[in-house]
Design brief:
The protein is mainly β and about 250 residues long. It contains two helices and 19 strands. The longest helix is centred in the N-terminal third of the chain and has 6 residues.
Length: about 250
């Protein structure tokens, strides 16, 4: 269900008290409901058999969105990214010339990159520091995406998380000129609070308290504009919290 106010693009209205608990400035999505009841949200046709749900920003600018392939083996033609692109696979898989990205994978394409999507299906969180360019594909540079499998058993040990008290964080090493940053945050204490300034937080594991509201796995909290907003994060009592944030 949608737990915040209606999102940009026309999500259905909320029936929750979360707005008075500190999340009124953000949109909260239960990604399980997005997958199970996609007809209840304000999608628009992005490409044939591909729909997009804008959560903040607009299609012709930097924006946060969910993309959904409505047909198996879906695809998107060759396009270029002048700035960094982030893709998180909610469910399904996405395929391009660099590989196959299954459920739970997040990858970041650097500025100047480009790709053609093939043999893909499912739901994906997109963060575009600039919209995809389907015209200037001759300018695509050679590149290597940064790929992180959040479902891997040794995920936390594969990356240089920095520990401070009951918290560990990992800033994804992205091109500073790409207009996008990514961060993973693990909090193991209800008393330890971390402020993250960004555009969205996704609860990957455990139960996170964001802006004073306990939220479970696969809950997405999105700032309603493209301007980064503060997110106060801690672990729910008796739980740990692992979240991924993306910021413009």
């Amino acid at each position: 269900m949608l737990l915040g106010l209606a999102c940009a693009g026309g999500c259905r209205s909320a029936e929750s008290s979360t707005d008075v608990q500190g999340l009124s400035a953000k949109t909260v999505l239960d990604l399980g409901d997005v997958k199970d009841n996609p007809g209840g949200y304000g999608w628009f046709d992005f490409r044939p058999n591909v729909q997009k749900l804008i959560l903040s920003g607009a299609a012709e600018t930097e924006h946060i969105a969910i993309l959904w392939y409505t047909a198996k083996a879906g695809g998107v033609g060759l396009h270029r990214h002048s700035k960094t692109e982030s893709v998180y696979v909610i469910e399904g898989s996405q395929t391009d010339a660099k590989g196959v990205y299954p459920t739970g994978t997040v990858y970041f394409n650097p500025p100047g990159s480009g790709h053609q999507i093939t043999n893909s299906s499912g739901f994906f969180i997109l963060a575009y520091a600039s919209p995809p360019d389907f015209t200037n594909t001759a300018l695509i540079d050679e590149y290597t995406p940064i790929r992180i499998d959040t479902k891997a058993p040794d995920f936390m040990n594969e990356h240089p998380f920095e520990r401070k008290a009951s918290m560990r964080t990992f800033a994804v090493p992205l091109d500073s000129g790409g207009g996008l940053s990514g961060k993973f945050i693990e909090v193991t204490s209800a008393e330890e609070r971390h402020q993250y300034d960004g555009n969205y937080l996704l609860v990957l594991d455990g139960s996170c308290v964001i802006e004073g509201v306990p939220l479970g796995e696969q809950t997405l909290v999105v700032a309603k504009t493209v301007h980064p907003e503060p997110f106060t994060v801690s672990a729910a009592k008796g739980s740990t919290c692992l979240a991924m944030g993306v910021s413009f």
